[in-house]
Amino acid sequence: GERFNAHKFVELALQGGAAASLWSKREAGEISVPEAYRDRIIYVDSGLQAYLLLSGYYMHYCGVKVLGITGSVGKTTTKDLAKAILGQKYCVGATLANHNNEVGFAETLLSLSQESEWAVVEMGMRARGEIERLAKIAQPQVSIITTIGESHLERLGTRREIALAKAELLDYSSKDGAAILPADSDFYELLCEHALGKRVSFAVNNAEADWHLLAAEEKIRLGERSENSAMRRLTCGQTVRFVCPEGEKELFLPAPGRHNCANMLAALAAGYEVGISVEEAAQGLASCLLTGKRLEMEIAPDGTVLIDDSYNAAPSSVKAALELLAKLPELLASESQLTSCQTQKRQRIAVLGDMLELGGNERQMHEELGTICANGGVELLIGVGELSRYTVRHAQERGLKAVWAADFEQALEKLNALRHPGDYLLVKASHSINLSALAQKIRANYVV
User: Helix 362-374 and helix 388-397: axis angle, to 10°?
Assistant: First the structure.
């Protein structure tokens, strides 16, 4: 890796019971093969490539079919939903959390049991060729591309290049399978050109799509107490009506936002292509557990509501989180157990950190967020990180109360000075800005 040479740990792994170890003389450098374990060393040119090929061999040995998922945003949630849906009929393995790089991909395949029938595999990338490398091995029977956004513009230059990088998944998918594609995307036609098998479209804003949204009604419910905390979880879900090949349907999705309706439709379409009806899928969705730090909501005894969406950030996902923050008072007012939270005026506070890897338009994209915050739904903005200076300045110029912080510690100081019991707090940024630590500090105020 970038920080450690794994060859240093080979002897320890073999002592601990590993049957064998891959060893690249080129990558090992000056590290010597442990003498006592020479008969358990497998020499390879590239440790990572050998690891990937080994995982692919094991996958084919088990006879597992692959549902491959990529996209600029929504990959992990779509993976969680698809796993729950396919699990209604098949033995399913899936990417753990969001471990979607080459190592996580190989770990996913190697963790499959011989009883596994499907693997739901999330594939991330930062450059052209990375998804191709994984898709060549996986050869998915069904592929989903969630959306084409702005993530990785810094490396790839244009959204078209991002679309082409994502389309590498389709280039190596089965001709006898299906490609589930976003009809709302301006790159939908480009993606269709790369799809080798059946093309299935989904959308929340396009009534021509095979699977399209009609309406969604959100509702918040009070959940269990969080572990070691006086805070209680809030479950925000929605009743979704949509059109599909079976006609008009309705079901409950345990996640908020139109963007999650799109993720759900993509997962439903994938399930349908492998023989799972909407009614069967609904049972899986009802018990689906989504990966954390994605619009994760909790309420404290003093009425403070925390929306922890701190894992990552791109313009589209930040806008979706701000939409939820804007309508949170109305949603809380509709839940009888939470009406006490509406006894006084609350601030909606957005703590937004830098969105990274956006390329030459990064300043404009951060300024646009300042405009969105100032246009309503936010009473206080705290920007964190150098790029967020533009967000704060743009919001201030439009009359919104906004302050800037260099890092999460400084942001926490300003937040504690400006917030009141019962405020609504949204925390969101790219992962390396470390706003997850700020969210944890907020929770620490309510430890029991």
Answer: 40
Question: In degrees rounded to 5, what are phi and psi of residue 252?
Answer: -100, 130
Residues 171/132, Cβ–Cβ less than 8 Å = yes
Residues 345, 176: Cα–Cα separation, whole Å: 57
Give the N- to C-terminal CA distance of the chain in Å, as an integer: 40
d(CA 111, CA 212): 35
pLDDT beyond 90 at 76 = yes
* Complete domains list, the chain, with CATH: 6-45 (no CATH), 50-286 (3.40.1190.10), 296-444 (3.90.190.20)
Output the pTM of the full model: 0.91
pLDDT averaged over every residue in the chain: 94
β 380-384/142-145 pair status? unpaired
Q: Are 77 and 102 in contact (CB under 8 A)?
A: no
**Single-letter residue type at 419:** R
Backbone angles phi, psi at 78, to 5 degrees: -60, -40
CA atoms of 413 and 416, how far apart (whole Å): 5
Q: How far apart are CA 216 and CA 327, in angstroms?
A: 14
**Separation CA 147–CA 263 (nearest Å):** 9
